[in-house]
Amino acid sequence: MADGTTERTGEPPPSYVFPTFGPELFEALRQAHPERIVLQVPAGLVRNAHDLAAQLREETGARVTVAARACFGACDFPSRDEAPKSDVAVVLGHSPIPNVRVVRATYFVEMREASGDPEALAATIGRAALPARLGLVASVQHLDLVGPLTAALERGGHSVRVGRGDRRLAYPAQALGCNYTGAEAIAGEVDAFLFVGTGQFHPIGLALAVDRPVWSIDPLQGELAPPIDRATLVGRRQLAVAAARDARRWGILVSSFAGQNRMPTALALQERAVARGRDAEILVFDRLDPKDLEGRALDAYVNTACPRIALDDGGLFARPMLTPPEFLMALGELPLAPYRFDTYH
To answer: What share of the chain is helix, strand, coil (3-state, %, to 5)?
Structure first.
């Protein structure tokens, strides 16, 4: 099945990576002499966005605008249409996705977090008696902790592995909500995975992607969360597949975001639907609102954009919302088990 973004010709605009929002970034921007900067921040920094924009203006002398829509990751940086007069983008909280071409010179500020005591974290993990063979996965903000934590865990008797993912991941041990190929690469060598970071977004995706127990530890609070209940997660997805098996008219959703557009995949799925005697219409969107799908003469949907739309928000839609592998399960072309995560390459 085809996958990936549309091929383009010509030299791509450059990308630059900075660990923090600070002097190194400001100096690089001053040297670039931008006239207008568009600043994009994740949800956790929205309260600080206007202070950060003011600091950019003061440090660079450029005009700064703030991208107001929700930011889901480095896959949906501001488009040309959203900020047509900005010659530079500053994207906070994300690393570049190596196989996604940016539309203007883009400065990725990963907001690396130096906090976290690896010895204390390893002691907490040791007291919880996690399996001896562990795979480590982390969000980009906490990747600097992976090395010290690995050493501390190994001194405590654990065997620790870190995997390198495919062309969509910039670093070993890194996780994206759509891609856990670094973990998948070492799943056969570990008994469990430990996610290093905050929140449940990445651990839930990791649990769906690998058939191993998944724990997560918050390096800032030093708290180890209970393991993810993978069986329940997978069971819910299998029920969604079962609910769509009799669907005759399908909507195939395609995102216009540069880092989420999988039109080749959508066309391949449309062919599979037709071959199985189903109708399938391709619908293109940027940010998807459940209201956008109301009143349509369709029985179910398959989402080729970020897989988390179906996995995390599927209950918001009035009709079943499946991922591409789940769609093939509904058509009878893939078995329900083992469950297959929609890894976005």
So the answer is: 35, 20, 45
The most distant pair of C-alpha atoms in the chain lies apart, rounded to whole Å, by 61
Question: Quick one: which of 126, 173, 166 has its CA closest to 145?
Answer: 173
What secondary structure does DSSP assign to 148-172, as a single string?
A: HHHHHHHHTT-EEE-----TT-SST
User: Considering 228, 261, 282, which residue would you say is the last residue of a domain?
Assistant: 228
pLDDT tens digits along 179-212: 999 999 999 999 999 999 999 999 999 999 999 9
Handedness of CA 121, 126, 131, 132 (dihedral sign): positive
- Domain stops at, among 84, 109, 134: 109
Q: How far apart are CA 111 and CA 18, in angstroms?
A: 8
pLDDT digits (tens, 9 = 90+) for 220-257: 999 999 999 999 999 999 999 999 999 999 999 999 98
Q: Which residue has the tokens 């619908």?
A: 283
Q: Give the global pTM.
A: 0.92
b (16+ CB within 10 A) / e for 260-297: bbbbbbbbbbbebbeeeebebeeeeeeebeeeebeeee
Domain with 293, as residue range(s), is 234-330
Do you know the residue count of the chain?
345
Task: Give how many domains the chain has, as a whole number.
Answer: 3
Beta bridge partners of 9: none
> Which residue stretches of the chain are H helix?
23-32, 49-60, 118-127, 146-155, 181-186, 201-209, 230-244, 263-275, 308-313, 324-330
